[in-house]
Structure formats: structure tokens, C-alpha cells
Specification:
By secondary structure, this protein is mainly α. It has 7 helices and no strands. The longest helix has 22 residues. 32% of the residues are buried.
Length: 163
Amino acid sequence: MRPFEQIVADYGPTVLRVCRAVVGPTDAEDAWSETFLSALKAYPELPEDANVEAWLVTIAHRKAVDLTRARARRPIAVDEVPDRPTRTGRPDDWDGDLWAALRMLPAKQRAAVAYHYLVGLPYKEIAAIVGSSPDAARRAAADGIKTLRAAYPHGATLGGKTS
């Protein structure tokens, strides 16, 4: 097996891109760190023929879910209490470029887009991560890309891929 440091060097940027796409830029580094801390503990037991990238993305997905749940439970300090709470926990005027377009997608579409177009995972592995069928993962990614093409102002492609 390769040294764990090599795993971090090889897959760290990919996992960080996934974390940014799924939880946003604010919590991405926390999700990345939590992913590799968990992976470090489990790495010695990983079968040698395992798809390390898919394994890490699965861990990142679970950590992203944990962070999203934790974020929903904690209060947010603000100078002035808004008239009504926001759905994201961020100020309404916050603009995060691509994240602004991604956050408008339903969670399964956002995950399918991130895992397929940023990481390059096949739909079968995405389905296992998000708990759906490969056809549903493919449909979620296609619907997500269609929505992003209409909503994202720059018309950029994700990860150099097109649907």
C-alpha cells in the first residue's frame, strides 16, 4: 500500500473541490480535514484493490452531511437580527460565484454534479454514496448541469467536462 502522505498529496485537491461544492467555501477546509482524519484511521484496513478516490469521496460526503447538520444546529452571530432567518445560514447578500449557483440545486443534484463532474466518479459509485440508483444519479447530475447552465452567469464547464 502507498504511504498515506501520498494518498493525501494525490487526492487532497480533489477532495477539497468536492467539499467546496457540497458544503461551500466556508466549511470546506473543515470537511477536508475531517475526511482525512477519518481516512487515516481506516486506511490500514482498506483493501489493496479499493478505489481510493471513491472511498475518500464517500468519507467526504459523510463529513459534509455531518457539518451541514451541525451548522443547522448552531447559532450565527450577526450585528442585526434579520426580519426572517435565511435558509442557508449566510447573509442574503453573500455571493460565492459558482457556489451561489450550486447552492440553488437540490442536495442530491449538487452531490451528483460534484462527484461526477469534479471527481469523475461513475454513476454507480455516486449512487452508492448518495443512496440511490445509478439511473437516478445520472438523472440528478443531468438535471443539475442543465440548471447550472441556465443559472451560472459565465457558462463555464465543471472540471473541464461537459454533460
